[in-house]
Amino acid sequence: MLTGSEILQLLQSLIWLLAGVGVFIVGMNFMSDALEKSAGSGMKRMLEKISNNRLSGVGIGAGVTAIIQSSSATSVMVIGLVNAGVMTLMQATPIIMDANIGTTITGVLVALKNDYFNMLMYLFAFAGVMMGFFKSEKIKLAGLLCSGLGLIFVGLNVMSSEQAFGNPLVEMLFTNIFKTINFPLLLIFVGVIFTALIQSSSAATGVVITMVGTGVLPLELALFIILGANIGTCVTALLACVGANANSKRVALIHFTFNVIGTALFTALIWIFKEPAVNLLVSLFPGDDPMSLQMRVSVFHVVFNVTTTLLLLPFTKWLVKYSSLVIKDKKADEEIRTLKYVDDRLLSTPPIALMQVKKEMDYMLSLVEQNMNLSFEAMETGSLACGERIRSNEAIIDFTNGALTKFLIKLSVGASQSDERVIGSYFHVLNDLERIGDHAENFYEIGEEMFGKKLEFSEKARTDIQKMSESVLKMLAISKEAFETLRKDGLSELVVLENTVDDMKKDLIASHFSRLAEGHCTLEVSPYYSSAISGLERVADHLVNVGYSIVNPIGSEKEN
User: Fold this and answer.
1) CA–CA gap between residue 312 and residue 319 (Å, rounded)
2) N or C, where is the chain less crowded by C-beta within 10 Å?
3) DSSP output for 520-553
């Protein structure tokens, strides 16, 4: 029976332990965010260029995840590319398979830490904080990376200190817990739940490795928790595919199935051959020092992920077929995704076909206008009720753009010179409308992300965005009327407004940085403000193209 002072001491140690876990997770998030922001666009381009070669997919999947240190982020990125139609399901599967390998680097670093390494990481944390005071965004991003890397090891050392796992009472508590929860399936379940809650298999693995290093978690039990962590990391990808198309949901299913199969195979092996497996790891890293204890878990984590990938890579096609059988295309979606006014039977009468294409584009333009108004409201007020409507409209806009482009390609074969001019103009307008639709969705996502992070624009920033968006909406009304009625009356005003928007962008960005320097605006809001202002300026450029398409096929302000 514990005395009052012992209970208090135990509570203090558990709080210390939780603080260490919290610092570790914050460090992981800092580092992952910094790496994703600095390399995310490049990684996305790399993923977009992937071929159907399975080995290249494996290499890219491991490489991308090793760089951004998050298999969840890689999976979400791949789901986004599949949802956009940039990547096929067959191309995405090898990347998803090998994303797990990239995250093993964190475990190896955790296992290799020592006093000298820790001192270096502490310096990194301090240097990162100091770099945050610089005005350069690149230096601040590098500082975020350094502080994140340092905080990971600060958290690990807090967890393994005398105040946390070093306390005999804590050791006794966890020893009793793992005497109760020593059944392999229960341990796997613990790994799944813990990883799902913190949404990072790297963080979960780091905590388990530290527990083994301090001696509170036996190696033979830790192996099963590590296996469960690989299933828990699928939660992020499963959440990311909500509202996405069927192929995106199939990617998430493949990710989940792949990890479950790998976990099941290794669970059976370790369960049956637990003693030989543990003895092998001990013989590879003999000794009772923390590094040896931790390296055993880390190496097992690497072997598990590499072996699972090698075993299942030949079955990529089967996994794709399986996912297609489980998740079928919805007939309702197929009915919705049809053009309202255009049919291939009109190809024999190009003039009539072009009239119908114009109607389809007028409808597309009306959806773009709806989304612009809704997204501005969401971004400025934080109201997210229109999210489903915006995404539904955007899906129709994207489909219309693709379907009309294919139709116009067919129509251009054998078209007259005058029809070719109109077709060329429509190609450009379709591209501009699709891009404006993307920006509208981005504006909504700015509001959505800020709401999720409980961030708000300052009163001045909100007023500035509102003024700029009002100018853009005026341009939208003029461009829409010009395109629908083919009247040139408002085109000169369109140019004046576009120049005004350009000037506003320069002035607003400059005033925003002044507010940052004076402390009237927070750094967390800065990327969203800059993104909103830049997006509005780009929309203005596209609107000029749409309006002037009635006098010039390429949308130039000068008549051709």
Assistant:
1) 9
2) N
3) SS-TTTHHHHHHHHHHHHHHHHHHHHHHHTTT-T
CA–CA separation, 102 vs 86, rounded Å?
Answer: 23
Where would I find the H helices in 339-457? 350-381, 387-412, 417-452
For the chain, list the domains and their CATH numbers.
4-326 (no CATH), 340-548 (1.20.58.220)
In the block, tokens 């946390």 appear at: 164
pTM for the full model? 0.53
**Nearest-angstrom CA–CA distance, 36 and 65:** 10
Per-residue pLDDT of the chain (560 residues; tens, 9 = 90+): 567 777 787 788 778 878 877 887 787 777 766 765 555 445 545 554 554 445 554 455 455 555 545 566 666 666 655 654 556 777 777 777 766 676 677 667 677 666 677 788 788 888 888 988 887 877 887 888 788 878 877 877 777 666 666 667 666 777 677 777 878 899 999 888 888 877 677 778 878 888 888 778 888 898 999 999 888 877 766 776 665 667 778 888 888 898 899 999 999 999 998 889 889 998 988 888 878 888 888 889 888 988 988 888 888 888 888 888 888 776 544 445 677 777 675 676 677 678 778 888 999 999 999 999 988 888 777 677 788 888 889 999 999 999 999 989 988 887 767 778 888 889 889 999 999 999 998 888 888 888 878 888 878 888 888 889 899 999 999 998 888 888 888 788 888 998 998 888 888 888 877 877 777 777 787 888 888 888 889 999 999 988 888 887 655 554 44
Tokens of 355: 């009239």
Q: Which two tokens stand for residue 283?
A: 């013989």
Go through 155-190 and write b for each residue having 16 or more CB atoms within 10 A of its CB, e for each that does not: bbbbbbbebbbbbebbeebbeeebeeeeebeebbbb
Cβ-based neighbour number of residue 311 at 10 Å: 12
CA angle 252, 312, 98 (to 5 degrees): 60
Are 450 and 528 in contact by the 8 Å Cβ rule? The answer is yes
The C-alpha angle 229, 234, 236, rounded to 5 degrees, equals 115
Contact call for residues 27 and 154 (beta carbons, < 8 A)? yes
List helix spans (H) across 160-218: 168-180, 184-198, 201-214
Between CA 284 and CA 278 the distance in angstroms is 10
Determine the Cα–Cα distance for residues 286 and 299; give it in Å rounded to an integer: 13
Q: How many residues does the chain have?
A: 560
**CB of 312 within 8 A of CB of 236?**
no
Alpha-carbon span 93 to 88, nearest angstrom: 9
Chain center to CA of 358: 36
Query: Letter for the amino acid at 482?
Result: A
